[in-house]
Amino acid sequence: MVSIKSEREIGLMREAGKILACVLDELGEALHPGMSTLEIDQLGDRIIRRYGCIPSFKNYNGYPASICVSVNDEVVHGIPSKYHLLKEGDIVSLDAGVIYKGYHSDAARTYGIGEISPEAKQLIRVTKQCFFEGIKYAKAGNHLNDISTAIQTYAQSFGYGVVRDLVGHGIGSHLHEDPEIPNFSQRRRGIRLRPGMTLAIEPMINAGRYDVSWLDDNWTVVTDDGSLSAHYENTILITDQEPEILSLL
């Protein structure tokens, strides 16, 4: 069942989204070669709590950290470690969520560490644009599959693989709500979008094939072919007009 949020709920989610945007901006500015992924998580946890929020991910289904930190061929859900140090040329995806007065926001960004390759720059740029191509169709009256198809079409125009095993989702008083939101086209059109729906749209795009596997920690997802992967996500609100991006300042 896809929930339609009240004005009060939307107001709380707007505030959650603004806070999360600030969290990711602060984290992005702090990244540097030699920083451990555990340090990223610890800093993110402090920032989230400084804003009076609770990390959505901490202990969610057993996930042990507040920030998912995924480096290079890690697609999502990388577990922070004091032994994993960022180095010049890496790309790192940070996926974070906050709970503000009982309501969630969820967003992700991919950053380059120092000077990165032209190929990595393009992957990050295209993955971000996949999100914006998708939300061109995030309008009342359109169908969910319109978003999914637009994301896939744009990504594949660059020869990239669109991850099939992981999808976006509804969001609100729970981190994951209906509906599931694939980044690839479906045979069915999916639900019709209505004002008041809140969705986490999150393209996960691989430089190579779309195939992925889970590491032995049962969390970290990696590309099967070792290619780089990027992730870009925002929480959005369906309105009577253009969609509102809640997790961008």
Summarize the structure.
It is built from 4 helices and 15 strands. The chain is of the alpha+beta class and 249 residues long.
Would you give an account of this structure?
By secondary structure, the protein is an alpha+beta fold. The protein has a single domain, classed as Creatinase/methionine aminopeptidase superfamily (Creatine Amidinohydrolase). 28% of the residues lie in helices and 25% in strands. The chain contains four helices and 15 strands. The protein has helices at 7-30, 37-50, 118-135, 144-156; strands at residues 54-55, 67-71, 74-76, 91-100, 103-112, 161-162, 168-170, 177-181, 198-201, 204-206, 212-214, 221-223, 229-231, 234-237, 244-245. The strands form four sheets. Strands 8-7-9-14-15 form a five-stranded antiparallel β-sheet. The longest helix has 24 residues, at 7-30.
Q: Shape from CA axes?
A: globular
Compressed to H and E, one letter per element, the order equals: HHEEEEEHHEEEEEEEEEE
Helix content: 25-40%
Number of domains: 1
Alpha-carbon distance between the two ends: 30 Å
Number of helices: 4
Q: CATH homologous superfamily name?
A: Creatinase/methionine aminopeptidase superfamily
| CATH architecture assignment | Alpha-Beta Complex
Q: What is the CATH topology descriptor?
A: Creatine Amidinohydrolase
Roughly what is the average pLDDT, rounded to an integer? 98
